[in-house]
Amino acid sequence: MGSPASTHTELRAPTLDDLEPVVELLNAESLRLTGSRDCDVDAIHGWWTQPPPFDLVEDVVLVERDGAIVGYGDVGDQANEGTVFWLDVRGEQFEQLVLELTRRARAKAAPEAVVRATVEAADADGARTLERLGYAPIRSSYKMSMELGDRSFDPSFPVGTAVRSAVEGEDEELLHDLNERTFADHWGFMSTPYAEWLHWLRALGKPDPSLWFVATIDGQHAGLALCRPSESGDPDSGWVSTLGVLPAFRGRGLGTALLQHACAEFQRRGLARAGLGVDAENVSGAVRLYERVGMQVVRKQDTWERPL
Length: 308
Fold this sequence. Notes:
Layout: E1 9-12, H1 19-34, H2 41-48, H3 56-59, E2 60-65, E3 68-76, E4 84-91, H4 94-108, E5 114-120, H5 124-132, E6 136-147, E7 161-165, H6 172-183, H7 194-203, E8 212-217, E9 220-228, E10 237-245, H8 254-268, E11 273-279, H9 286-293, E12 296-307
Parallel strand pairs: 4-5, 10-11
Antiparallel strand pairs: 1-2, 2-3, 3-4, 5-12, 6-11, 6-12, 7-8, 8-9, 9-10
Helix pairs in contact: 8-9
């Protein structure tokens, strides 16, 4: 009998040529843990081509074994301040990837910085590894979804409300300002520079300004709903990327009406589902709002943290 075939495993930086195998890996992991796909090539391309200081070579690591990509990890510093780093790790060599990305974050960290890692609630092995490495759970988030079917959506907007679609090339700065002010009191909020925010608005699939809704009440800007005509990994589901109401206008039903308005448009376009993501402890009571409209939690992710 011959000796067993040897295997070669290495950590390496990605190139854009790795997009499709990485998406295949991420979706395989998501299907294993949640039963649903997680992303598409547009989403990962958008992540990998975001503006500096993100560096594809330094901030993303692949695990390759005998020519196949079997593990993935990236690290991000959303505020570019070196205070909070976020890890996303999937697939094989989970612990090795966490340790490598933590090392890279530490090299850029400010005093008293922390590192956070988000894992699927169903990923018991990942949670045990993070706990062993000194992480503790601090927060959870939900993906919520609903079947549109023959539901009837009849938004009841507050008196004096007007809703319009944004005009591409004219309204982006307004949308950015509304987004910043709407979420400034939310957990984990970090201001995003305009150029970077604009990248995210446009990069995750083909932008559709007709689904960027701006609401005013008595002529004052009050809220927004930024939507996409498909969710990464599910072309039959419309996705509400951002849904927010400025603090001064909360409690009047505007958020509920904006969500119903978006769902009605998804339905008109023939989409089967609508989905969104939300912090499980959202200060504005968003989870209850979405449940009243008919959404249900279909996926839970837990955020773990440790000092750097």
